[in-house]
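Hey, quick one: can you model this chain's 3D structure?
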Amino acid sequence: MQKNKSVWGKYERLNETVFHFRGGYTDLYLKRENNSWYIKRKENEEVAQSISIVEEIGNDDFSDADIYYTGKSDSFYIRPVLPEKPVVFRNNTRLGISPKQTLLIYLAVPLSVQFYTRFSHNEALIWEQPLQRLSDTWFGEADSGEPAFSIGSRFGFKPEELKASYFEVICPVKIHNTTDHFLDIQRLIVHVEHMNLYEKQSQLFSDTTYIEFKGVDLVSNVHYAADRKLLGNSPVKLSSARKAVSKNIISKSFHFIKNLT
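Sure thing. Here's the predicted structure for all 261 residues.
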């Protein structure tokens, strides 16, 4: 399944129509009236086959819609983003890294869509819609962990192994085990809020998360960057990270239910 390349970008209402956005299990209807955007949402039982937005002539009932007063501009922008909280990968099989070795895996993270009245200005955000419902989880110990979303146990050693849908972002994670012990990956947190999004051949990719594991009780070195080998020398950037990286907010990358072996 592939998305329409023209979805991301600027839209402007030129006549008395309603914008109909469809993606994942959600339909959104956007109507322009009284210098405001009226937005209503409908959940579907079946997933859409692509992400699309079209202008329709209709007499839909917007009496229960959310209303956003935005002034005289009749235009808005759509962009893709990663979830607002970190995501947690939980391994259901044995996945380990020998001492001094580096592992590269790929995770599939569900996409969210944002609607703006001005491109890339957070104060102009009028709506955000996840295209797949995510389960809340907790990463770490009860008194020192952090809230996150669970993405399950699915991973691949190559991007194509994931068979990612159009509403999923492929997130590469590269882990270097610097210790003298075997690293048994049980629960891994990925701070997707620090990662940019790119497009390659209709598939969405994030920055690569680089993790330098130093030990069970130590904070890992973590940084994020576009992989030029994967995305090419001039990757098409669709959206910037939600938050800038700060050393103060990077915590442990792994949570061990058992000790290292």
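One thing worth noting: The chain has a mean pLDDT of 86.
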